[in-house]
Amino acid sequence: MRRNWKKVIAGVLLATTMTAALSACGTTSNNGGTTAGQSAGGSSGGVTGATIKVFLSEEPGADDINMKMMNAWAAETGNAIETIIISHADQATKFPSMAKNKDLPDLIWTTGIHQKYPEEFVDMSTVMDMDIFEDTVLKILGKSYTSDKIVGLPVQFTVTNMYYNKDAFAAAGLTAPTIESAWTWDELYENAAKLQESGAVKYGFASDVSRARYDILMYANGGSLVEADGDTFKITVNSEANIKTLEKFVEANEKVMPKAIWAGGTTDNPVDYFKNGDAGILLSGSWNYNSMLEEITNFDFGIMPTPKGEVSQASIIGGTALAVPENAKNKEAALDFCKWLYEEEHFKTYLQGDKGLSARKGVVYEPENEKSVEDLAIIQSEVAYVSDLFMVDESSGWRVYKNDEYRDTIKRAVSGELTAKEALDTFAKEFSESSGWAIAE
Amino acid sequence: MIKKKQAFRHTRAFWLFVLPALLLFSVFFILPLILSIGFSFTNYDGWKTMDFVGLKNYIKLFTSIEFYKALGRTFVYALCNLPFKVIIPLLVATLVTSKRLKGTTPIRTIIYIPVLLSALVAGITINWMFGQEYGLINFIIQKLGGTPLEWALNPKLATFVISFASNWVTVGYYMILFIGGINNIPKELYEAGSVDGATSVQTFFRLTLPLLSPTIFIVLLLSSVGLLKEYALIQGITQGGPGTSTTYIIKYIFDQGFTQYRYGYASAIGVIVSLIFIVIALIQFRATNGGGEV
User: Fold this and answer.
1) Which tens digit of pLDDT belongs to each residue from A241-276?
2) Which of B23, B239, B252 to mutate to test the interface with A (most CBs of A within 10 A)?
3) Choosing a second label site near A153 at 20 to 30 A (CA), which of A17, A61, A336, A341?
């Protein structure tokens, strides 16, 4: 009898332990925390006592302006913030799971989830006056790809831009281009080779591994991913112009760039190559400017205008938007934060901390030093090079069908696995199958 | 009657102890397997689209060159690395069980430490060692006057780095299995061999190896499965590159499912790949007589 009871107790204990382990595994594993706002006895927007769950793409540092603004709002309004850290790449997988489990965040700082699933997000045009935003930026960062719904508010707006190593240029006897006298892409490749030959740097030119960076070469040469065709689109990614652009890019990787990065066998970051003084020119974006200012101490760097292609200079704007899921538990509190942030005084504070471009009319970042004033003037000028071809591509919402596959296809061409033509033809075929769009003749 | 009661109690106790593991197995293996088979007949995108498409996914995968390329690369990688997965831990285990070697305990511990690392940490460590620009190995090569190797650009070198990492992470685990097998060999057999004048090499090949057949079979089976399923290290070190030279079948399935949102198609690939792996395991089982002989 005693032995039987022992067996039963052992079995029950084991079952309880396993169940507890299962429920521990099942809890949301968030790298986040909660910041309780100090109650100020009321809120500017009327919502108080809420804890809003916020998706962030990386752990905020001590000086992170996004976190500071959210905490300031929380303190002022008697609310609290709970952060969930999920990288941009993982947000696309996590968000659908959270929606299915009815465990959505209340606010997302996102680069694309809102445009991938527009039906899941609040139409911000029903909540705030859209006239306060720069029109182009709002269309690219906030508007749904498939309708006029504004599913996100542009908050961190960035543009592609070129950095260069002033000391290396001086050693190689090169003069940096100016807004009035920009280089062509061919001149950039030639001068990158001179930089390398001078021994001042190991690589003349490096570029972020991002199709958004590669695409400015495409747009500069008059190419595009799609073209409008009545109510639909035709695929033009494998046009002759694009094949030529890719062939030149592949050649540049062989001669003046750290090929391993775009060939895909390494996780090295080209921005680190530039910061270490190993790359003389870097194609990246304005979001890196502040880290360059803080971290580059062993040489002087500057900003140069994007080179011209066969047709024009080209740039791409992008960034982060604030989006609020329709079915978020604390939707009203999240919207209250959005309204608060875009008030002129608060957005000015935000911009001074972000040190970036402004998506809101009438508010600009005012740098404290002369170098930043000069650099930001060149960065700001890049916005004018956003081409119509880019706008058409964005309006097609092509990234709903294919995104990383495009970048991976370019990588295969750079690695030599495929020729430029094979790579773009292969991608065009897969793109056509996914989207249902015909390939242009 | 009493015997029947006792038998019933034993059976009940058995199921009580087995039930939690069975539940976990069902929830984390059987259920996902059934769901995966179900998804393979749909165009499931991970969330909102799930229409029955019949055998369309299977037809697509059997006519996909990329699928065969990824599978081929995986088989070549597994075949080339399998001998090392068995031989290296076996030799290490033989060494650390030798009475002539001093300090075997700390040696075993040091060799076992990589087993405890997560694949992410292992990948970061390997990146630090084999980074093309800033890695330790190339730094040493340059200091010795040599030319840095193109670890990340050369497909063969990139594959070598993955192989090195894979062996480094698992040698401790298989070493433990072999140590257990070696320690279970009766000492009298070695004494008899010694009396008959057998050398160390003869003892190893004529006595140790044959008696380790069951362990060798287990290591062969586990390492085959591990090699065929290699993913985490690839993601952490080469991300499938350069090009697609280290994109093996699991990375291919991951890309199809999680990057391209073709869960249905990825599930179909998963089903076919699982069947292939089962066939491989069965062949190994038959070839080694379930571990009865090598």
Assistant:
1) 999 999 999 999 999 999 999 998 888 999 999 999
2) B239
3) A61
